[in-house]
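hey so i finally got around to running the thing on that chain from the lab meeting. sorry it took forever, my laptop kept dying and i had to restart like 3 times. anyway pasting the input first so we r on the same page abt which one it is
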Amino acid sequence: MNKLAAFKACYSEWKLIKTRQVVQVVFEVPLKDHDEAYQALGGMPDPSKERWFAIAALDLSNVAQAPATRETDSDLAHPSATVSRPRKPVAADQRLAQQAGIACADPLFRRFINAETEADAATYVRQSIGVASRAEIIPGTPEGEAWQNLYGEFLVWRDAPDLSSRTLPAPRLAPGSLTRQTEAVS
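ok and heres what got predicted. didnt touch it at all, straight out
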């Protein structure tokens, strides 16, 4: 079996982690290529072991690009059809707010925070981060850092449950309520 040594990704974010005096460099991989990237990186990071990788810029000016296609009603009838659309850029200060919105729509994230609906998840996020609106979750602010911590806990819970300290049921919102409740564990 041939082990993949490299994969293509798009540079998308730069995060300063003051407490550890490091910078996190974030690259995005198309969903269709995620498994190859995951394998090339050796799977889930292990906090007890450092693994170092080289990063190099690619010159794609000489590479033929596949033409973008529009999603049509016939594409929707065939979910296996590959549709590529240009990605709409997100302003840097809105990136975390968008991530929070996407997470609240994710059933697995809602399970993690034990929220029944997307609205309950949004309320939970706003309360736990301490904002009136998810739009206030901005990189480089305490609210942005609080969101990144919560989302990071979710990723560990989802991808490496043996490393997660969180167990279900998690703190939960009463449906339609802005107050947190805790379910008793029997």
